[in-house]
Design a protein that fits this description.
The protein has 308 residues and is of the alpha+beta class. The protein is built from 10 helices and 10 strands.
Amino acid sequence: MDDACDRVRRRAYGPPVVDAPGDSLAQLRAWASSAFPAQDWRRAEHHHGAFHDVLVLPGEVALRAPLGGGGLARATREVGVLRAVEQVSLGVAVPPALSDVVQHGEQCGYLVGALPGAAEPAPAWPLLRDAFAALLDQLAATSTHLDLPPPRTWCGGSCFPAVVAPDLLSLLGGCAALAERAVSALLELPPPRRPGLVHGDFGGHNLLWADGRPSALIDWDHACTGDPATDVAPLVGAHGVAAVSEVVEDDEVLQRAMVHRATLPLQVAAAAHLAGRWALRDHALGSFARRCEEGTLHDPTGAVPDRW
């Protein structure tokens, strides 16, 4: 392991971060009222994500407060990403950053615009298929000269393999060899023929709808310029490569997407490990182990890439 990756690991590690029960929401509202007093956070809706607590004043503003260690650095990167992608025209809204990062005590956070629309509980595949196809085309057509971080910065960047081995492999037992192989396969992918704007957590869970049409694409925390197959990977995981082939006709992209998909729970586990969020890390590792046992590492139906 090189010195830079060793420093990343040592800097990120700290005592485990446990989600506090009971009064944690009241504490977050009190912090928000101190950091951003122009808003009445007592009436805000609360959403608890994997790496953020979010307070939403519908139609107005949302506060995103990172969970776990390294929150200030992560929040600063996320605001920079939002300000870069604000320049993009995708045919749907992108949340604007409305503030710099504010830190009071150990907590930090920032404001984004609360966009119109809502998550669709179970849109029919034809609706999703058409929405995904249009958005993937727009992402691919976007200039790659945006000021964005390198791929997988959110889970260690170039140090991601050094977090997986040895830190995560030691927790995976009999699945460790497959995890190591999956990371190696990802690293061995040749550069994409045409890099594009990558959302990084693409899928129906981050798509808002209004009047039966997609209205906004949210949660750009993992955005980068990179392999378009990165955004196809979670679609494969949610719908299967056969269905996604109706949206993505390029078989090379589908093959690459299955390689990316195999490592997605390892990426979540690495990010959680670096943030000291052990419960989330172990949940993600459990997902990887279950897929290994079921033979669904690359695709929920058991398909595998040609070169696996």
